[in-house]
């Protein structure tokens, strides 16, 4: 079994560096995917209310045979539940669906600056953390002004900021802000939906190491100190993704992949995303 490296969060807790994402997996299939991932050696499962498969996530954790205290479980608050009281109710609903007694990480899924409720929402997450119902709290898709406002108005920095990040969108500036604030950067859509698979920098590294281009990209995330949460329903691909932890890119290969950045988003811009839009 591949040894999982860990990252230390700003609240002192430990999070596995690589996890399995479950976006766009049907609830009925999610339990098998999660159980298989945990049996392969994954110890981080990244879910969300918006994925509509939290029940399957909980079943998979229970069916895996892996002790609950060995699994780092994340879920996220969806946009229709921002605000203090609404966030508390949404968390209760998530826990009912998961069938778990606590979460390891709970994130605000989007800042929704036009709605202007993320500070009150953050205060609700702080309360949940203080009550011990979630171990760590964080954000997703937050830009520097959103992060600084949370900290300025509550004194509490997110433990994690999960953002779209891949070789076509390296987010160097936001990664630097996260580091300055002591926030771990976690990459969603880490493979960029295949956008950079044909890049010579990636193909050459894959040829040298005798691995897949996806493994090269995942290793690039790992060597940058990022947490990464690739998604797959295929057991062989799940194992292949995890094996990227055993690879090593050279400094020149890392620099060549960094140079692929072209600011290309595959998802919404957090500054413009309308809370009434679906994911």
From TrEMBL:
Domain spans labelled NADP-dependent oxidoreductase: 19-261
Catalytic residues (positions): 51 (proton donor)
UniProt region (Disordered), positions on chain: 259-279
Domain of life: Bacteria
Site (Lowers pKa of active site Tyr): 76
Residues annotated for substrate binding in this entry: 109
Keywords assigned: NADP, Oxidoreductase
Keyword Membrane listed: no
Coiled-coil segments: none
Signal peptide residues on this chain, from the entry's feature table: none
Reaction catalyzed: hydroxyacetone + NADP(+) = methylglyoxal + NADPH + H(+)
Stretches with biased composition (Basic and acidic residues): 259-268
PROSITE patterns cross-referenced by the UniProt entry: ALDOKETO_REDUCTASE_1
InterPro entries in the record: AKR (IPR020471), Aldo/ket_reductase_CS (IPR018170), NAD(P)_OxRdtase_dom_sf (IPR036812), NADP_OxRdtase_dom (IPR023210)
Alphabetized GO MF terms: oxidoreductase activity, acting on the CH-OH group of donors, NAD or NADP as acceptor
PANTHER family named among the record's database cross-references: 2,5-DIKETO-D-GLUCONIC ACID REDUCTASE, NADP-DEPENDENT OXIDOREDUCTASE DOMAIN-CONTAINING PROTEIN
Family, as annotated: Belongs to the aldo/keto reductase family.
Listed name of the protein: Aldo/keto reductase
């Amino acid at each position: 079994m591949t040894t999982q490296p860990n990252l230390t969060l700003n609240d002192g807790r430990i999070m596995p560096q690589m996890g399995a994402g479950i976006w766009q997996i049907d609830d009925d299939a999610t339990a098998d995917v999660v159980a298989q991932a945990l049996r392969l050696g994954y110890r981080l499962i990244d879910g969300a209310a918006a994925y509509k498969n939290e029940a399957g996530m909980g079943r998979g954790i229970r069916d895996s045979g892996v002790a609950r205290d060995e699994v780092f479980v994340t879920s996220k608050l969806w946009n229709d539940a921002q605000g203090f009281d609404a966030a508390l109710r949404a968390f209760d609903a998530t826990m009912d669906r998961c069938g778990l007694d606590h979460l390891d990480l709970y994130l605000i899924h989007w800042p929704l600056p036009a709605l202007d409720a993320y500070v009150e929402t953050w205060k609700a997450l702080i309360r949940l953390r203080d009550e011990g119902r979630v171990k760590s709290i964080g954000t997703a898709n937050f830009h520097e002004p959103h992060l600084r406002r949370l900290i300025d108005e509550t004194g509490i920095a997110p433990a994690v900021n999960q953002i779209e990040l891949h070789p076509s969108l390296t987010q160097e500036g936001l990664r630097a802000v996260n580091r300055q604030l002591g926030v771990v950067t976690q990459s969603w859509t880490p493979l960029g939906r295949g956008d950079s698979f044909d890049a010579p920098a990636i193909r050459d590294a894959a040829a040298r190491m005798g691995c897949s281009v996806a493994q090269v990209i995942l290793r690039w995330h790992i060597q940058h100190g990022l947490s990464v949460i690739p998604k797959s329903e295929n057991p062989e691909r799940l194992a292949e993704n995890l094996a990227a932890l055993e690879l090593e890119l050279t400094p020149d290969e890392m620099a060549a992949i960094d140079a692929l950045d072209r600011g290309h988003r595959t998802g919404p811009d957090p500054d413009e995303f309308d809370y009434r839009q679906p994911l």
